[in-house]
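hey m, so remember when u said the tokens were messed up on ur end? i reran from scratch. heres the input so u can diff it against urs
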Amino acid sequence: IKNRLAKSAMSEGFGTWDNRVTPGLVRLYGCWADGGIGLCITGNVMIDRRALGEPGNVVIEDESDLPLLQQWARAATDQGAALWVQLNHPGKQSPKGLNASNLSPSAIPFREDMAAFFDTPREASADEIRDIIRRFGRSAAICKKAGFSGVQIHGAHGYLVSQFLSPHPNQRTDEWGGSPERRRRFVLAVYAEIRKQVGKDFPVGI
């Protein structure tokens, strides 16, 4: 990274209605890179089109947008900036009506003052958990292929990784919940899958 200036992740909402990459993202990150910044981190790119955190999220789950992804990456990297993609799954933290259904480690409802905005999730099955882990890895591999400089696992703000770590939304009694060691098994598995798919030298943050 060429200097100590970094832009943290901010959710842009610049994706299409069906969650594709747009030229607007290319222009935006080109402008930030033109300012001389060393590192840009994108906001809230989702790994599953069925699990959106908000309207306008970009989803990277296959290579259908690879040409535009490559343009997005080059908009920053051609100017000497590093560009990392923040990868996320919202879990239960998705507004009512946006997804067909929402999952979480456990089927714990939101508190009363938030229940008007968020549905009670269903408990994720073991197969669904393993699928999500694979999706994090697949999305990261596509980012690497597109020319991005690294990826960041979104582990904060109450989204799925955070839900697994917390004993409130994660009240499971299987290998994915209970003790602190089992609650952090999910994020460690996500990291391990990403590392397996991108190799040892590609930057991965959280």
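this time it looks ok to me. The longest strand covers residues 82-88. if urs says something different then somethings off w ur setup not the seq
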